[in-house]
Amino acid sequence: MDYVNRARLKILGHMEEIPASDVETLSKLEDNTYRATIERGFLIHVSAFDWNCPQHITPRYTEEDIEKAISHITAENEQLKKQLADLNSEA
């Protein structure tokens, strides 16, 4: 799900379980940076996929996205607070 771009990928496939006895295939699934022993795996044979219509996907944003979008407003707010403090100190 990509909330920012309002996109959703749907995948239709058939799963195949890789049993513990198939050591050769399981070794291909291993990640050298992860210490766990692979006991079994799954392969998904994709039959179809589709990108959904964005009409009913509500956009969602990260805190970083929002901060970037309102950074100019935040900067202006700080500047106005400083000006107000300066005016109050003169009075």
Walk me through what this model shows.
The structure is a single chain. By secondary structure, the chain is an alpha+beta fold. It folds into 2 domains: 1-60, no CATH class; 61-91. 36% of the residues lie in helices and 23% in strands. It contains 3 helices and 2 strands, in the order E-H-E-H-H. Strands 1-2 form a two-stranded antiparallel sheet. The longest helix has 20 residues, at 71-90.
Summed up, what is this model?
Helix content is 36%, strand content 23%.
How are the SSEs ordered, and which strands pair?
Elements: E1 9-18, H1 23-28, E2 41-51, H2 63-69, H3 71-90
Antiparallel strand pairs: 1-2
- Biggest sheet statistics: 2 strands, antiparallel
Rounded to the nearest angstrom, the distance between the terminal CA atoms is: 55 Å
Strand element count: 2
Q: From the structure provided, what is the oligomeric state, counting identical versus distinct chains?
A: single chain
Order of helices and strands: EHEHH
Give the averaged pLDDT, no decimals.
89
The whole-angstrom Rg is 26 Å
Number of separate domains: 2
Number of helices: 3
* Major sheet strand order: 1-2
What are its keywords?
single chain, 91 residues, 2 domains, two-stranded antiparallel sheet, 3 helices, 2 strands, 36% helix, elongated
